[in-house]
Amino acid sequence: MQEIANHVFIETIYPGVTLGAISRKHGLILVDSPFRQDDARSWRSALLNLGGGIARMLIQLDAHMDRTMGAKALECTILSHHDAANAFQNRPASIKAQTTDAGAEWESFNGLGSIRWGTPHITFTDQMMVHWDESPICIQHKPGISEGSIWPELIEEKIIFLGDAVVSKQTPFVGYANFSDWISHLSELVTPKYQDYFFVGGRNGLLTSEDIHFQISLLNLINEQLLDLASFKSSLDSVNKLVPDLMKKIPGIQADQYDLFAKRLAYGLQINYSRRFLEKTSKKEF
How far apart are CA 104 and CA 119, in angstroms? Predict the structure, then answer.
């Protein structure tokens, strides 16, 4: 566990997600959860040494399964965006019924068993403030990567948890992206206002401004290529042809993770292209 500011910790040892723990006078505020039940219990035990008040609250940065499957095991109040909470209503309890081959981390692990989803207890739509001591936490809706994505900002400590909005050495999740919003949100982070901030990624731990700049460039490129395909009314199969060249542009991908991240990119491109262009065309023709 790494202390990145006074009473603010991150943990990167668990697969699939970077965790956060913020110790306040009123209690511990957690950011995301491990997807394996054993890891969730291990994380809960590690938190006993952090002190703070008796209350516990978990902030889910979006509804992605990698960061929500183990939430129930943390046994605390769960906070999420309203749209993320809605995603759980139609989510079956059996992991076998979930989407596979989407390039999520949990798909690489066997024996996860049935899931008891942790239904959010607190939701919001635009912004909310958490006042558990004199250092407030501002949680804002940032729907670029998905409708239910949020960013908690620790105002006094100058720390923002970005979730999957920025990833390093791997492919982003673009299936439900609104590229213009996503790029706009990230562009704010490279202004002078945020030059002294710590940025915590949901997959990589601490990120740099260079990581953010690269993510913006990559998202612009992906969107441009999808728009080009749409202008020629290309079929969904054509989207897969974009994957090899895009993978070459992402530095640092390890050989043993290449297939997973290529699968993630292909799945995301197909979902995004179908949702934005093919579904609209079908509705018009109907």
Answer: 21
Q: Is the full-model pTM beyond 0.85?
A: yes
> What residues contact residue 126 under an 8 Å CB cut-off, 6+ apart?
140, 141
For 2-209, CATH gives 3.60.15.10
Q: Summarize pLDDT for 79-121 with one digit per residue, the tens.
A: 999 999 998 777 766 565 566 678 888 888 776 666 777 789 9
pLDDT recorded at residue 113: 65
Q: Which residues contact 3 (CB under 8 A, 6 or more apart)?
A: 9
Q: Which residues pair with 233 in a beta bridge?
A: none
Is residue 215 within 8 A of residue 166, CB to CB? The reply is yes
19-23: strand order across its sheet: 2-5, 8-11, 19-23, 27-31, 55-59, 77-81, 122-124
| Position 133, amino acid | D
CA distances from 182 to 10, 94, 147, 224 (A): 24, 31, 11, 14
More confident residue, 16 or 281: 16
- Could you read off the pLDDT of 115-132 as tens digits, one per residue? 777 789 999 999 999 999
DSSP sequence for the chain: -EEEETTEEEE--STT--EEEEE-SSEEEEE---SSHHHHHHHHHHGGGG---SEEEEE-SS--HHHHTTGGGG-SEEEEEHHHHHHHHT--S-GGGS--SS--GGGG-S----------SEEESSEEEE-SSSS-EEEEE-TTSSTT-EEEEETTTTEEEEETTS-SSS----TT--HHHHHHHHHHHTSGGGTT-EEEETTTEEE-HHHHHHHHHHHHHHHHHHHHHHHTT--GGGGGGGHHHHHHTSTT--GGGHHHHHHHHHHHHHHHHIIIIIHHHHHHH-
